[in-house]
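Standup notes
- HV: blocked on the assembly model, inputs below
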Amino acid sequence: MTSIDSERTITVTVNGVPREATVPVRRLLSDALRHDLGLTGTHVGCEHGVCGACTVVVDGAAVRSCLMLAVQVDGAEVRTVEGLAREDHQGGQVLHPVQEAFRECHALQCGFCTPGFLMTIAAGLEGRDNSAELTEEEVDDMVGGNLCRCTGYANIKKAVHHAAAAMKDGA
Amino acid sequence: MKPAPFRYADPSTLGEALAVLSDEGAKVLAGGQSLLPLLSMRLAAPATLVDINRIPDLDAVEVTDDAVTVGALVRHDALLRHGGAAAVQPLLGRATANVAHPAIRNRGTTVGSIAHADPSGEMTSVLALTDGSVTVATTAGSEVVGWRDFFVGPLETSIPAGAVVTAATFPALPPRSGTAFAEVARRKGDYAVCGAGVVVTLSEDRRVERVLASYVSVGLTPEVHDLTEAVAGSPAEKADWAAAGALARTLVDPDTDIHASADYRRLLVGVLTERTLADAAAEAGARAARE
Ligand SMILES: Cc1cc2nc3c(=O)[nH]c(=O)nc-3n(C[C@H](O)[C@H](O)[C@H](O)COP(=O)(O)OP(=O)(O)OC[C@H]3O[C@@H](n4cnc5c(N)ncnc54)[C@H](O)[C@@H]3O)c2cc1C
Ligand code: FES
Ligand code: FES
């Protein structure tokens, strides 16, 4: 028999760590990450899919976390901005090439939109063959769904090229 | 805002999904890329959601020489990348490239956008233009419904409450034919201010035999307009596509909204028709030469 619930306990692997949470079924994934799991790196802007600030990676694909229910990620792997940098095994962390490129190219100002851009671009670049040249059209398609009110996009697009070059060289 | 409280089921078979849908007067949740915004804005507050994402076998794209059948869980992104589907019906890839942004295409489904029946969605027009149909399942069984009987009004279809659209079928591009799709949107990936999809079919001696067009964000439901009379019999490379664009402008009945006036949309219909027809005719010529 199919169970029809108002609340569920879910198990989800977030940034490599198995986590459990009991949530009302109407809980958005964005809110579950921030409120139930304490991962406030994922930002929430519009809550209807338009701004892209809440973008996270679910089972390898970039998605809007405000357009998924938390119960829908039961059993899935979620990656958030907190999971981009790697441990350097000396007590510190190594930034992901996309984060490094954002710093290098000054691709953020207030930083509100940044987690969404980072996740969108990281998934976009990790999902493509980086030995093929990255076209302007591809870059526009990649970042066109994320709103930034500060930078004017020129430096964000520069950072995408920068990161793609670094990832091609196996950084 | 947040969705109003509801109850949730994610059955693992179509039969169970249909049973819950009919018992509970519930709503189907597919990709959620239109439904969740509606819930969060409290424009919809269903008592129960039936999530179909855990039902196996609904995520297949079946390609034959005659048609492409897209299952209910095929994401926009999967259809966009499906070379086999594009070879049989090139409008699928061309139109899907204009649907939203990558993160939305990763979740949103082609069938969901047809079931949603938004006249500003690309795939509703493509279903009409290709003379396609949907397969509708209820507890009583499954039936195929042609697009004309399916679309009733903006965001309204003829399917009974509790039904699941399990697939959409897009017939193949006919011989000696070419297609094109173009739109004007405020940003790449936004809903179109106006979009146009066209099919041009040539005769054996490469003259224009048939010209069909369908528009996005123009009118309340998708429609197909026959523009053949403006250019019938012209050699494909010398046809007066502007005349076809002028005819199209007289046939459409766009609305004014916050994004554009009806007059501006009518102007775009003419411009996009002229541009896309030239491309579609060139493709029809190239395909005819190969066939
Ligand atoms: C920012 C943004 C931009 C967008 N831009 C575009 C765009 O440019 N062009 C475009 O076409 N779309 C656009 N979309 C919408 C997107 O394409 C949706 O994915 C699509 O309209 C609905 O598909 P879904 O699978 O997400 O359906 P859902 O959101 O899950 O469902 C939508 C509706 O259809 C019903 N439904 C869905 N599937 C079925 C089924 N199999 N059987 C019966 N009923 C069903 C649901 O009950 C609901 O009422 C955009 C969305 C966002 C958030
Ligand atoms: S908060 Fe999710 S897209 Fe804006
Ligand atoms: S850096 Fe401020 S919104 Fe993008």
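- HV (later): unblocked. The helical segments of chain A are 29-36, 97-105, 114-126, 136-143, 154-168. Chain A has two domains: 7-83, 86-170.
- Next: hand off to the docking folks.
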